[in-house]
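cron nightly-structures :: item 1 of 1
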Amino acid sequence: MKDEWTIYHELLEEVYSDDELISELDDPFAGQIEINADHRFLDVGCGQSPLVLKFVRQGIAVTAMDENRVVIAALDRRLRKYGEVARSLATLVNGRYPAHPPPNPPFTMVAIRDVLHFHDRAEQKYMVQLLSARIHRGALVTVKGHSQEHIVASNPTMDSRYKWFFSDENLRSLFDARQYECLWTKTYEAKPTSLYVSFITKWVTRVGQQHGVPPSQIAQHVSEYLAHGPEITIEGLFRKL
């Protein structure tokens, strides 16, 4: 029997085209850096990363890390559709940072998005500390995680995987002000698109069917999931001094 997150990532590949993934991306590097083939991009906890897909299309070398083999396999299949030359730009690593340090440093752009909230504070600080030795001066680092206003922060039994919820202050304090300049931070509620609603409906339905849940209960679970409360996100962009 497949676990729910294997089903999640298989469905993500099935439902979202590359263009649709990229279209929903609010590129954190936009307007901050001139994109060219001299850059090297690292994505930690990449998922089926729209940033990886976007940068490979632009001829940039990328290193993408994720501990989930299903994710890495799906990202590999997406990249192979672009041809051998484009695929050769990407190094895909099935491993958990920081236990597995990323290959191919130094990097000029780094993303640690939707992964920090799975680590406690000591692990987060260690991740940033290790990163500092693997990036260029002037490199940009984008981070993103769940805010203290996120619905799970006040109801942790909803998802026990989350170990940390961020305020603006403790997001900024991850980065030593002597080594990094904070360019911006923002907190916002993630608004679901119609494609996302369709995706979640299929995911909850497929998981329920696998466990023999009656259709009426599956429909109820879908409604509850989509209405469970605000998914408040915080993100920031930092420059290495």
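cron nightly-structures :: done
The beta strands are 40-44, 61-66, 90-94, 107-113, 135-146, 180-189, 232-240.
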